[in-house]
Amino acid sequence: MSHTANVAAPAHIHKDYNGAKIGMWLFLFTEVLLFGGLFLIYAVYRTAHSHDFAEAAKELNVVLGALNTAVLLTSSLTMALAIACIHRAKKTLALTYLGITILCALVFMVIKYIEWSGKISHGLYPGSEFIMANYSKGQRIYFGLYYSMTGLHALHVIIGATILTVMFYVIYQRPNETHRWDVFGKDALNGCRVAILDKDGNEKWGSEIDESVKQVHLKMRYYSTPKRIKHEDYVSLENSGLYWHIVDVIWIFLFPLMYLIG
Predict the structure, then answer these.
(1) Which residue spans within the chain are E strands per DSSP?
(2) For the CA atoms of 51, 248, 32, 144, what is the dihedral angle to 10 degrees?
(3) Fold (topology level) of 17-175+230-259
(4) Which residues of the chain have pLDDT under 50?
(5) Which parts of the sequence belong to the Heme-copper oxidase subunit III family profile domain (predicted)?
(6) What residue ranges do the domains of the chain occupy?
(7) What is the pTM for the complete model shown?
């Protein structure tokens, strides 16, 4: 005698998406405190050595700084567009914008490398014999702050680009989802028949559960539609975008403070 059984997926596991967003905002607040402290230190020394800071700032390449500003502003736009597209189930377009954002991060780091390597080759770095012999105390403080603040920001750019790369992979793999069910209480299902039916009720595949069954492994391919997409489904991408935006905002403050005061 055979039986027919409906095999249901496990109960939905509740995830606190609001908590994840609140956690990200709290983390971003600590980032603001970190750079806010550095900006405060900068303001104190800038007040005490205003002339030296203005003279030292002339050593920076304003064109490269402005170019990096444009690159990061563009990346903020493409990041926002990527999030908007993924909410509208436009996966390919979302990946395109996310890829452009990652590319902008790489361009930023290349420009920063060119800028830093040029200065270091000329001895313009904290503690060098050249800078100790030819620059005043205020100018040496300026270069120390410049390398510290822009270096810390560059580290955040690298971290952000890494996170976005991971999100790119996650979204790229999104159409494939794997579910596994351990056959807990499997004895109750012995002799039952598991079948896959099409939309018309016709059996496409069937098998009977017996003692040899240890685990049910089902792999499904699906394509999201706008009606099935919920805001919380992409909270990870949104949080990644928030992190990237704060990186951009910090640079918006760094650029005029470091490059334009001269």
Answers:
(1) 3-4, 176-182, 192-197, 203-208, 215-221
(2) -40
(3) Four Helix Bundle (Hemerythrin (Met), subunit A) (1.20.120)
(4) 1-12, 176-179, 181, 183-184, 222-230
(5) 1-262
(6) 17-175+230-259, 177-221
(7) 0.73
